[in-house]
Amino acid sequence: LKARYRETPAELSSYGASKLHGEQLLAWGMAKQGGRFCSLRLAQLYDEQGECATHQAWFARIVAYAASGADLRLPPGEAPRNFVHVDDAAALLMRAADEGWQGLRTVVHPQSHSTAEIAALAYAQFGQGGRVQIAEEKTPFREVFIPAVDSSYQHPFLSLAAGLARIRVSGHGPRFAALDVA
């Protein structure tokens, strides 16, 4: 489940409410069967192959532009974003199963970044030229809820800079091409 929604039903969208109700139904069903329930609420995920491009359009656009050295016009806004590499998510899913975790756990990276910071990291990593311009006429990035880091487990998360380096080394930067918007 996405980690970005709040717990109180009044603050949920229909999307978030349906996920919360799904968790509640699964927890109830597992309790009735004498099983255990664990839900990992994942932050935004990314990978090296560009599979995340469909769901993380701005992240994908930043990577594609940085990889090609093209100029990028970003909307303004310092709203933080939180990305977890799929390898970290998979490792935590395996730990949850192996260690018998129960209940709700948030999986967020300990370091969040604004979109402009993500772009600066990507352009520095790829080193292909191009520049990032903040387009003040564009609608600013909206705030998103990022829950607190769950300190009940320790995990050495891959840094975003290291994840971007993996994308560069893999040669898959062009696969991140996303539908462009004005």
Radius of gyration: 18 Å
Bulk shape = globular
Q: Which structural class matches the secondary elements?
A: alpha/beta
SS summary, helix count: 5
Oligomeric nature of the chains: single chain
In total, the number of strands is: 8
- The order of strands across the largest sheet is 1-6
What is the residue-averaged pLDDT? 89
The helix/strand series, from N terminus to C terminus, equals HEEHEEEHEEHEH
Distance between the termini: 30 Å
Uncertain spans, ≥5 residues at pLDDT below 50?
A: 1-6
**How large a portion of the residues is in β-strands, by DSSP E?**
5-15%
Helix content: 25-40%
- Major β-sheet, in short? 2 strands, parallel
Overview in brief:
The chain has 182 residues and is α/β, with parallel strands linked by helices. It has helices spanning 14-32, 57-68, 86-99, 115-126, 160-170; strands at residues 38-42, 44-46, 72-74, 80-81, 83-85, 103-107, 113-114, 132-134. Helix content is 37%, strand content 14%.
Topology:
Elements: H1 14-32, E1 38-42, E2 44-46, H2 57-68, E3 72-74, E4 80-81, E5 83-85, H3 86-99, E6 103-107, E7 113-114, H4 115-126, E8 132-134, H5 160-170
Parallel strand pairs: 1-6, 2-5, 3-8
Antiparallel strand pairs: 4-7
Helix pairs in contact: 2-4, 4-5
Overview of this protein structure:
- The chain is an alpha/beta fold.
- The chain is built from five helices and eight strands.
- It is globular.
